[in-house]
Design brief:
single chain; alpha+beta; two-stranded antiparallel ribbon; 3 helices; 5 strands
Length: about 120
């Protein structure tokens, strides 16, 4: 972006007798509307960028932290299913699709699976 990219030129014609012909009222209104739309679009882009940065910051702050006590979650796998277990309160947290994968296991495998994660 150049230092002058934010500015728009409005044509002002100088006739031979050196009088200035300013843009008509409709032209001036058009340029004002265009300037408003440009600023609005720029503001929306800044908001989207700020929102993305805030979302990333929150993810960095809370990623792999227990929602109950805030301690670190440890990922554990058994029979191809990964779960997150809290290192402090022993809570077990499932990601999307993991509960469905558990329900597809046979009952005997489910019982063994849950025994693995007991204290």
């Amino acid at each position: 972006m150049t230092p002058f990219s934010e500015y728009h030129c409005i044509a002002i014609y100088i006739e031979e007798d050196r009088t200035l012909n300013k843009p008509s009222e409709k032209e001036a209104e058009y340029y004002e509307r265009m300037e408003f739309e440009r600023r609005k679009k720029k503001e929306e882009q800044e908001y989207i960028q700020m929102e993305a940065e805030e979302k990333k910051g929150l993810k960095d702050l809370h990623f792999m932290q227990c929602p109950k006590c805030g301690m670190k979650l440890l990922e554990m796998s058994y029979k191809g299913i990964s779960v997150d277990k809290c290192s402090a309160c022993s809570g077990i947290w499932l990601d999307a699709g993991e509960l469905e994968a558990l329900t597809r296991l046979e009952q005997s495998k489910q019982d063994k699976w849950f025994k693995v994660f007991k204290k």
